[in-house]
Structure formats: C-alpha cells, structure tokens
Amino acid sequence: MMVNFQTMSEEMKKDFIRERIDHDNESGRFEGKVVTRFPPEPNGYLHIGHAKSICLNFGVAQEYQRGPCHLRFDDTNPAKEEQEYVDSIKEDVRWLGFDWNEQEFFASNYFDQLYGYAVQLIKKGHAYVCDISGDDWAEYRGVPTEPGKESPNRNRSIEENLTLFQKMKEGEFEEGAYVLRAKIDMTSPNLHLRDPALYRIKKASHHRTGEQWCIYPMYDFAHCLSDSIEEITHSLCTLEFEVHRPLYDWILDTLGVYHPQQIEFARLNLTYTVLSKRKLLQLVEEGHVESWDDPRMPTLSGLRRKGYTPAAIRQFCDTIGIAKRENTIELPLLEHALRSDLEQTASRAMVVFDPLKVVITNYDDTCASEISAPVHPADETRGTRTLPFTKELFIERADFMLDPPKKFFRLAPEKEVRLRNSYIIKCNDVIKNESGEISELHCTLDPETLGANPSDGRKVKGVIHWVSATSHLEIEARLYENLFLAERPDEVDEGASFTDHLNPDSLKVVTAYAEPSLGSATCGQNYQFERVGYFCPDNTSTPEQPVFNKTVNLKDSWGKKQS
Asked: What global pTM score does this model have?
C-alpha cells in the first residue's frame, strides 16, 4: 500500500510505520519508548535516497518524542571506508535539519563485543570456521529450489573452531583463507540462512581502529547486534533487507540478546538517476563528473551545490510518503518541491544570456539613472535592490522579432513593451550589421511610465528583463541538464553499461550579463533569474569571477500534470 502524504492530514502521516510501532507499544514489548537509528556505511557520499531514510528515522523519533534517533556508522569494511565520508555524512544530516544530539556511534565501537558474540556462537555449536572460498561457496549454497551442499568443515569440533578463529584474529592466515560461518540450514529456501559468513579476514587499515584488527564482522552480523547493543526499538530498513530479516532474528534469538523490531519500506528510485553508491563512485573515478558534489550528481552535496534547499528535500520526502513495494518516482516531482520552496524564498535578479543592444535615443538628464526593484515581489520586508539604468541596455535577443506572429507580446518594430520595473519603450529603428544581422535597436522611452505601476495607468501586455550595457556584471553560468538521457538508466541490455545512457550535453558553460547586485551573492543564496530559471552561486565563485549554477527551470511540468 502506498502512503500518499499529499492527501493526508498531519495526524495520518507515517501510519505505515506508526501502526507497527503502536502495536509494539501496546504489547509492552519496548515499554512505550521509540528509539530509531540512521546507519549509513561510510563508503561514499549520501544521496537523495538516503534523505528519505534520514527524514523517516529522525521524523519518527521526533514525532513520538520518547527516544532519540542515533547516527551510527556501520563501518565494517575498512577497504572502502574513509573519514572523508564520515565527515560528509554528518554535514549532510545537519544540512537537512536534523541533529542526533550526541547520539553518535560506530559499529567499530563494538568490535570487541562482536568478537565475543562470535565466540559465543562457536561455543554453542552454531558457528564454524570454513576454508571454502567465496567463489566456490556459491556452488555449495546452491539455489532456492534445491537443497545446498554442506561444507566439509561444518562439523569441526568446537575446540578446533575456537583455535582457528583465534588464529584468524591474530593474523596467522591470508585473506580469503578462512571465514566464520553461522551453522543454520543448508536446505532453507532463503539463501541468507544457508550458513552465511559472519566474519572474514581483511588485512586493511581501518579509519578508526587502524591495524588493531585483521578480521571484520560481515554487515548482517554487525548490523543487528549494533541495533541490539544500542537498544534500538525499531530498525527501519529498505525493502531489500526483508529477506535478511530471518537472519537478523536468528542471530539475536540464538544469542539471547535484546531484540529490536525490523520494519522494511521501499527504497527511493528516481527517474533519470542512478542511486547506487558503486555506480556513483564509478562516475567520479571515470571522470564522467567532476566530483561527488558535482551538481549533476544525486548526492546531497551535489544537490546542495546545485541550489537545492533542505526544506525542498524534506517536502519531497513527505510527498512521496512510505511504500511497501518498489516504485520509481518521477524526477519532476522533486523539481516541483524545489520550485515551490524557491518561489517563496529566492531573491530576484535580472540576467541576459543572449544580448541584443537597445539604445534609448531620448535618454537625457531627466531620466532615472537608477531603478529601485523589490528583492522579492511578494515580500516587502526583503527590501529593494538598485539597478543602473543607462542609455544603452541589453535585452534577450529572443525578446525581439522583426515580423512577429499575432500573439507575440514582446518587442517588435513600432511596438511597445515594458522593461521590468522600469519604463515602457517603443522600437523605432532596427540597425543591422554588414552581414545583415540585427546589431541593435533604437528605441524611445515614455518618461511618464517609470515603475511597475505607472501613474497614468497605461499598460502594455509585454514585460521583458534587461540589464545596463555599460554597468553590468559579467558572470559564468553553468547550465545543467539531466546526467542521463534514459528515464531508467539502470535498465540496460546485456553487455551494455549504465554509462551508455550519459547525456553528452549535461553541462553547458556560457557567459551572461547580470545586474550588479549579484556581485555580493554568496554560496548558499538562491536567486530567480527573472523569466529564465533559478540559480545559485557555485562554491568556486569569487567576486572577481562570479560563477552561477542553474538549479532548475521555471517551467513546472509535474505541477501542470497534476492540475
């Protein structure tokens, strides 16, 4: 069942999860408390899919107000984990607006305890040391419809297993020589219960424990026990962990330790996007994008650099709600949430991308040399900005036509148009260069029409933006489009790669001419370039070389589809 947050009251939100939590509370199982956790692996940057889990886990904890949401790093694979990823994850969670209130944990905090639990399983006869390699184990494990084949090591004595496991810990064996396996059921139709690996040898330096360990717990073993150690009440996981839940339960029940309740929900899939950390890393390493925070990436750092706001992402996560089946969300829905926020919060500015010179032939000392315009037209408290008005201006070339169609309400010969926040002008002459191209327009202004609401009440249908040709700011504008051309880039033919769907035109860099007020723009500010789209300063922008990233177009295709 899909939970649609758009049609729900606040009281009905998160019913999909709340129903399970309330049932547990009524049974007295968790004594009325709710403790959740967000448990990323620090092997990459967080992406928009993680935002859904962050909002859910922290949101449930905030809603019930009975316990915290822990931030726990499941750092059990030293070969792929780095402090850089830990730092970026913490920055992203805070940027989204959530705080773990010092409840910060690492699975590596529990390495001694996890090792002790593994020894307990060996002593109980529920785990054994196995020398079958990972590649060969696939043959032993078999397929769900037929029983697997038992390892010849399965019936080692407890004493031999304890000795071998101790030697694994002391570094006496090479990687791949041995693993510790749970002894469960080689006939189970659930392959995760066919003697899964619990520990493996990994001779790599850990970002926190250094060289202290050379064996590391597998994710399934460390995850459930970390939940237990922290007394998490509800372990909210994405749907692919549903088949892992019997193993989650078996480990905790066999050890007789505190047992959280695992609840699964569908992960986020987004059109024109890949959300696999492995594939995102491939994009970075192969140079298809600049970095993890490239504005074309679906990482939270990339979205932040592109100009997305925390409020927009939280709204998007609320809108898509919680599903119990896999589904793919349309990218325009995410952009719709962004536009809804930016329309209310983004400052306005005028920027011309394809300039056509306009000469005001009757410009004189009586004309305004500066125009006052609102920072935001719907919020007077935001104040005003000053625009230099000069004899020569730039307008967009597309805002003029020599022979316009009937419903073209912009500038044309002998036609009038209003310059936004300024005068009404009329085109009197069209000047062409030697190649026959239009090089400039000669226009006259009506001095009685200054401002958005002229005193004489005369109106024209067309309003266009402009900048001074002599007092403007030259900026670099980075125009981003979807990184992939295919709606579902993960769906590829045999022998093909998701990178075959990359958009070669996902980034276009152009020079544009902006009003001078943008010279004081700083990273983190959002702007609507009027009649063009939403932009923000890039984190490389400087006063000497301003750089702006296109966040999203003004056009809202998803919103129109819903109306």
From this structure: 0.89
